């Protein structure tokens, strides 16, 4: 199969390299990712400014646009045909309410809107534990394999979150996991007229049985969404 990969951390992020490695087990991989960091841009798209495409190597490009722009340009601008779009591996979780602001998830949603099934993959990061990309790759492969074995309907896309650190390398992948309905921890530090977000990710709501609680407890969480096609 032909697989397009993208992300919101930028074309040179280690998570994109990790995703390229994971996706390579399932088919032919091409990448089109943002030229710069695009975290938390949500589903913003560009319609009033030109989008410059740069080829880095055969089948590898970056674009000075958002994650959703990258998917649009690949599927409609370049008119390339792909069987799946994979977005990530994001450095940090995209759990619960994150799906509304995440550029990683927006790229998958845009693909689904354009008729291509997609998976957003994020690596929850618990400080001060170091990154472990080889483990991320192994867990991502497990999640992708499980999703590919699941019947897909038009408009489907999935949001995957990988636990960190991993106590059990064979941690359970929970498919059709519900997303946490509670909001992120919202707090600010203030200096004069300047406000700096100071919420703590680990202080967010954790409803038992939902994605945040399950991922924090060490499980791969997989949530199916539909673009409504």
Which SSEs are present, and which pair or pack?
Blueprint: E1 2-6, H1 14-23, E2 28-34, E3 53-57, E4 60-63, H2 67-77, E5 84-91, H3 103-113, E6 118-123, H4 133-148, E7 156-162, E8 173-174, E9 188-191, E10 194-197, H5 211-216, E11 220-226
Helix pairs in contact: 1-4, 2-3
Commentary on this structure:
- With 229 residues, the chain is α/β, with parallel strands linked by helices.
- It has one domain: 3-Layer(aba) Sandwich (Stationary-phase Survival Protein Sure Homolog, Chain: A), CATH 3.40.1210.
- Helices cover 24% and strands 26% of the residues.
- The chain has helices spanning 14-23, 67-77, 103-113, 133-148, 211-216; strands spanning 2-6, 28-34, 53-57, 60-63, 84-91, 118-123, 156-162, 173-174, 188-191, 194-197, 220-226.
- α1 packs across α4 (133-148) and α2 runs parallel beside α3.
- The chain is globular and about 45 Å long.
């Amino acid at each position: 199969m032909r697989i397009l990969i993208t992300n919101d951390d930028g074309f040179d992020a280690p998570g994109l390299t990790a995703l390229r490695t994971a996706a390579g087990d399932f088919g032919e991989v091409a990448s089109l990712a943002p030229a710069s960091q695009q975290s938390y841009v949500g589903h913003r798209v560009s319609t009033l400014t030109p989008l410059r495409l740069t080829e880095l190597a055969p089948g590898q490009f970056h674009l000075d646009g958002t994650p959703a722009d990258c998917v649009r340009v690949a599927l409609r601008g370049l008119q390339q045909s792909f069987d799946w779009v994979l977005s990530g591996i994001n450095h940090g979780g995209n759990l619960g309410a994150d799906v509304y602001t995440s550029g990683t998830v927006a790229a998958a949603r845009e693909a689904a809107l354009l008729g291509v099934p997609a998976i957003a993959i994020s690596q929850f990061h618990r400080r001060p534990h170091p990154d472990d990309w080889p483990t991320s790759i192994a867990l991502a492969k497990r999640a992708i394999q499980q999703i590919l074995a699941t019947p897909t309907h038009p408009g489907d896309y999935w949001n995957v979150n990988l636990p960190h650190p991993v106590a059990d390398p064979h941690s359970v992948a929970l498919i059709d996991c519900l997303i946490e309905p509670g909001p992120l921890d919202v707090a600010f530090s203030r200096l004069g007229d300047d406000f700096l977000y100071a919420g703590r990710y680990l202080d967010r709501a954790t409803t038992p049985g939902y994605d945040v609680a399950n991922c924090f407890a060490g499980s791969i969480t997989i949530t199916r969404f539909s673009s409504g096609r």
